[in-house]
């Protein structure tokens, strides 16, 4: 019976692929036909899960790329989803009709709230957790809930690969009976000291509730910490990166290039390096392939509109770590700019209109010497404008544009030549369409 | 000078609660008043005699209990502060701490209600109304007050149990996050109350909350046209 289900769903999967539709539909159908089919699969020798708030897709894409470059056959869910159906689809696509996986290695990005479900039928040998931070509160509640969801389903046969610079992540290692490997980044020229106004997800020792001392921060809650009272501290990383400049870093004597100079990308590359090494690749193999990876920077796109350059950055609402990185990117521009901020819906997953997260984002950090004006778009334009007023922008600098259709007209007639927009996915689609029409 | 105490600013700040402090400070300053902001937490001594406005916000279940455990020694001081009609604002699950119990853990026992865990987390948009205010906001909580004798608001949208408290100038609500930003009339009210407590004959300037009111009215008119 299961063999037949696999034949049928493989066929569906092939058809969808021909139509260029990556999907989790085959997994959905398979589960409908037999809810126990998920226990049917025989995984390869090595299965790697990547989970956490940010970086999952990048890390699993990098690892897949490294292994493929070194001649290994990899099963990966980058075309589907990181929920149960997506994982099943990946298993169906990569197995024979008896459920035996025909790959050398599985590299799977796992949604942080679905690890508990997926680990029941597929156990990873290696579990990478890069970070956990504020993200989608209506869905996740808060970071402790995400932590417990993962932590309660870790077993001692899983080798944990943990970010040593995030105190929430090192908590996973405290009671782990199996192996743990840590990776971290040394102090850099951009590291900063504690500031009372930083928003912390964890600042009191998880063992004794004493306030942690941070020697430095890289960003957010990430840095080098220790408890002044007990033995909780940043573990010494097994793989430690030393930043050379914005474009490269070192792991011992090996130099790794960074295509995408966004700071968090060091962690993605570093953990990919460490994991590849742990799973048997040599230093040379790993470094060579890492340096050949061209990172897809499709979160940033630039369009020409008359004499203006319009850059679109896709920003993740309700995820302040990710959003603040976009603000950092804007602050690095060396010219006078206009920025556009807005969204049609707060989330693609749900319809809740919770605006609290706007106040977790550090709009105060925006460089007021660069930014000439800010255009707020969409149904929440006034809420965004109010947030910006309290981030010390003058009300004259804040333009309200509830109707996104009027946005481009405003931009066309504006004096500013460089426009950067922080907008949601849906607004990007609308804007792109308008930009194309205007370019005709 | 007005002294604002932000209690457990680093433990109970889960959903943008900082926003309340930012707008409060700015609005007071725009009235020409000097503001002394005290960021207080586990390793500080609290002195309620010094404060004119006390704020406490939302935390994880774990952090809430850590804070409660620390706050217990100030129960008498808090009672006195409330009886003196000084302004106290509690948002999100921090209001749970002021009741008799949270599940089987003893609360501060300042108000006579009990709090119980819910089987599923309660996540909802909320619209509250009483004779003085219509408040918009959001709830995201794992527990609820089960026996509030006198809720401060009627629930027009959201969880019907939404239980809010007002006694003297203690204002407690399950609404999370930047409540004072989203409800500028309530911000004005609290600011006036805080100033009047210190200086009855204070001459108020016009509040500069144009954008705040536009956001508030726009939200109500867009999403709650039928409920008003």
How does this structure look, described?
The complex is a heterodimer of chains A (440) and B (228). Chain A is α/β, with parallel strands linked by helices. Chain A contains 14 helices and 17 strands. In chain A, the strands form 3 sheets. In chain A, strands 2-3-1-4-5-6-9-10-11 form a 9-stranded mixed beta sheet, sandwiched between helices. In chain A, helix 2 (25-33) packs across helix 4 (84-93). The longest helix of chain B is centred in the last third of the chain and has 15 residues, at 184-198. At the A-B interface, helix 7 and helix 12 of A face helix 1, helix 2, strand 7, strand 8 and helix 6 of B.
* Class based on secondary structure composition and strand pairing of chain B: alpha/beta
Number of strands of chain A: 17
- Secondary-structure element pattern of chain B, one letter each: EHEEHHEEEEEEEEHHH
Which regions of chain A contain 5 or more consecutive residues with pLDDT less than 50?
Answer: none
Shape of chain A: globular
The portion of residues assigned to helices of chain A is: 25-40%
Radius of gyration of chain A: 23 Å
Strands of the biggest beta sheet of chain A: in what spatial order?
A: 2-3-1-4-5-6-9-10-11
Radius of gyration of chain B: 17 Å
Largest interface: A-B, 35 and 42 residues
Which strand order do you get reading across the main beta sheet of chain B? Answer: 2-1-3-4-11-10
- Oligomeric state of this protein: heterodimer
Largest sheet entry of chain A: 9 strands, mixed
């Amino acid at each position: 019976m299961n063999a037949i289900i696999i034949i049928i769903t493989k066929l569906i999967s092939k058809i969808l692929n021909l139509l260029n539709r990556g999907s989790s539909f085959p997994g959905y159908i398979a589960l409908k036909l037999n809810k126990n089919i998920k226990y049917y699969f025989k995984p390869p020798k090595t299965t790697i899960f990547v989970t956490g708030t940010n970086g999952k897709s990048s890390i699993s894409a990098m690892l897949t790329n490294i292994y493929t470059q070194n001649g290994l056959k990899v099963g990966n869910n980058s075309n589907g989803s990181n929920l149960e159906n997506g994982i099943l689809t990946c298993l169906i696509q990569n197995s024979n009709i008896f459920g035996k996986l025909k790959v050398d290695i599985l590299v799977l990005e796992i949604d942080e709230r679905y690890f508990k479900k997926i680990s029941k039928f597929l156990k990873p040998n290696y579990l990478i957790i890069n970070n956990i931070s504020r993200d989608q509160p209506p869905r996740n509640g808060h970071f402790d809930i995400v932590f417990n969801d993962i932590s309660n389903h870790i077993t001692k046969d899983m080798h944990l690969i943990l970010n040593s610079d995030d105190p929430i992540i090192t908590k996973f290692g405290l009671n782990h009976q199996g192996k743990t490997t840590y990776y971290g980044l040394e102090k850099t020229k951009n590291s900063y000291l504690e500031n009372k106004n930083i928003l912390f997800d964890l600042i009191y020792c998880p063992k004794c509730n004493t306030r942690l001392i941070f020697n430095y921060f890289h960003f957010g809650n990430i840095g080098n910490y220790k408890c002044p009272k007990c033995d909780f501290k940043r573990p010494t990383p097994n793989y430690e990166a030393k930043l050379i400049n914005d474009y490269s870093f070192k792991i011992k004597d090996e130099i790794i290039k960074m295509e995408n100079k966004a700071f968090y990308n060091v962690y993605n590359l570093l953990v990919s390096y460490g994991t590849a090494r742990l799973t048997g690749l040599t230093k040379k193999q790993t470094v060579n392939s890492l340096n050949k990876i061209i990172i897809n920077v499709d979160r940033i796109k630039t369009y020409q509109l008359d004499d203006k350059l319009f850059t679109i950055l896709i920003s993740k609402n309700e995820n302040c770590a990710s959003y603040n990185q976009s603000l950092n990117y804007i602050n690095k521009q060396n010219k006078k700019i206009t920025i556009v901020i807005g969204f049609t819906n707060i989330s693609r997953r749900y319809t809740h209109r919770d605006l609290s997260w706007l106040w977790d984002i550090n709009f105060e950090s925006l460089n007021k010497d660069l930014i000439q004006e800010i255009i707020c778009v969409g149904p929440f334009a006034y809420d965004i404008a109010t947030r910006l007023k309290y981030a010390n922008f003058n009300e004259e600098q804040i333009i309200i544009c509830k109707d996104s259709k009027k946005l481009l007209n405003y931009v066309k007639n504006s004096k500013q030549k460089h426009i950067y927009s922080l907008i949601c996915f849906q607004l990007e689609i609308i804007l792109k369409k308008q930009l194309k029409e205007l370019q005709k | 000078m007005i002294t604002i105490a932000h209690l457990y600013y680093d433990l109970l700040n889960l959903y943008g609660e900082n926003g309340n402090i930012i707008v409060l400070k700015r609005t007071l300053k725009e009235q020409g008043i000097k503001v002394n902001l005290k960021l207080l937490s586990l390793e500080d001594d609290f002195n309620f005699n010094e404060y004119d406005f006390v704020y406490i916000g939302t935390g994880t279940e774990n952090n809430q209990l850590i804070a409660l455990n620390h706050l217990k020694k100030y129960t008498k001081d808090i009672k006195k502060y409330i009886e003196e009609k000084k302004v106290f604002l509690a948002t999100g699950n921090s209001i749970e701490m002021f009741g008799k119990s949270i599940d089987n853990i003893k609360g501060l026992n300042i108000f006579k209600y009990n709090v119980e865990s819910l089987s599923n987390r309660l996540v909802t948009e909320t619209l509250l109304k009483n004779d003085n205010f219509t408040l918009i906001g959001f709830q995201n909580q794992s527990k609820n007050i089960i026996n509030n004798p006198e809720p401060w608001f009627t629930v027009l949208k959201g969880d019907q149990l939404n239980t809010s408290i007002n006694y003297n100038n203690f204002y407690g609500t399950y609404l999370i996050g930047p409540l004072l930003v989203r409800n500028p009339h309530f911000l004005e009210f609290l600011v006036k109350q805080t100033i009047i407590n210190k200086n009855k004959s204070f001459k108020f300037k016009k509040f500069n909350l144009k954008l705040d009111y536009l956001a508030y009215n726009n939200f109500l008119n867009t999403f709650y046209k039928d409920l008003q």
